[in-house]
Amino acid sequence: MKNIYLLLILTSPFFVFSQVSGPEIFAEYSVFYNSDLKSSVNHKITAGSELFSFKYLCPEIEIAYTFGAHENSKIPFTSFAFGFSPKLILQEEKSRWVFIPKYHLGKITAENFDTNNNITTYKDKINFWSFAIGLEIKSNHNVSNREKWGVYLIYNGFNARPTMNKINFEQLKINNTQSIGLSFRISTNFKRVDKEYPE
Fold this sequence. Notes:
2 helices; mainly beta; 8-stranded antiparallel β-barrel; 9 strands; disordered N terminus; elongated; Porin; disordered C terminus
């Protein structure tokens, strides 16, 4: 009996790792709607990696650049933030539905011009959550790497209001910049494929 337990302990890592998919890298573009921002949208460009995929879990990390402006003033803002997510697979067949709760940590910069056209810059730390649900579809082409396309509906908790209000000389009303948006992603792994992806 002890020999059986020992065999299970020794072989379990091979069983687990045989079900683990390797890392993927991705690039993503997001656009968010907010009625208080210029042109009603702000934008985010992201690069990141899905570290591995095991059953219903595929954690990922990212770095993102976000930019936008207030609708009624010349107060643009930009931010760089790191993101961390467990990323959960809700359903997987030929494509997969995913839920992505993500925590972001970074810095925001806002700028404004006074009546003498002097620029004031203010930097602040930010942290917030975003929540996305989306569909990811695997490419079925005979290419060197497996590609995957994704589209997501996102609630973005990013709020530039506190930083923008600190340099708001005209005391305009700036509401929360939390927003709803769409995101589009392409990702690829490093595994060589010599034939089409199996259906």
